# Entry
Amino acid sequence: MNKKEETPQNGKTKEVGAVVNAIHILRHLARSSPAEGVAAIARATGISPSSAFNILRTLTNEQLVAFNDKDKSYRLGLGLSELAVSFIGHSYADLIQPELERLSLNHRILLVLWQVTGDNHITAIARAIPNAAHVDVPLNSRLPELIGAGGRCVAALRKLPEDELRRRFARLHWENPPSFATYQEEVRNALHNGWAIEVGNLYRGVCLASSAITDQHDQPRFVLSGIGIAAQHSREELEEMGEALKETARFVGRGLFPLREKT
# Structure
């Protein structure tokens, strides 16, 4: 595999501390129901009180944070709506597409975004195709939700009883099916790793690496899959891709399905 493009997502560019801290504060406020003072925000984010105060004052000036002078507390401000308004009306596929393009470019592999549907299937709703792709998945393609590398991730999150998992596994159609014992072990690994890979099971000669995007209840809502020719990707490369997919899935999940802190 050729050397990856250097991008901010690869972590190879120098970060600006004040900007990173401001983002931490905004994310914390997004998860916090009540407004909070500087001291509470500093403790929660690990930022020094003086730095937190200066950042909050700047964010308040820009209307990204609202300040309550009566109790000296902060909450998210209306100025954020100006930044978010461009996303209104966009589909999930539109919002995730840039991440697909980045992963496809870095790993030189077909990237597919699957939506987990309510009928125990997944449907391809977006994709990014590299220049040298030798495989393709048409949009709107459907697969059983428990098949392939993505299926192992979904099965791990579903935490199905063994008899139910065995029943549903028996109904799956693979070109080169794994044994149930192997599949079950790989489901356990997917739960531990946050990603799964397979080589030559679903389709002979095809490799897959996948990770699931989960909602607030840790249920699978989407699956990210890298799909390529097995001979072109080593096990090490697939595991590296699995880690990249996991980090992207976490990032996307946090953005689409934000958690609120308990009060």
Q: What stands out?
A: The chain has two domains: 14-84, 92-256. The first strand starts at residue 65 and ends at 68. Residues 235-256 form the longest helix (22 residues). Residues 92-256 form a domain with the Beta-Lactamase fold (CATH 3.30.450.40).
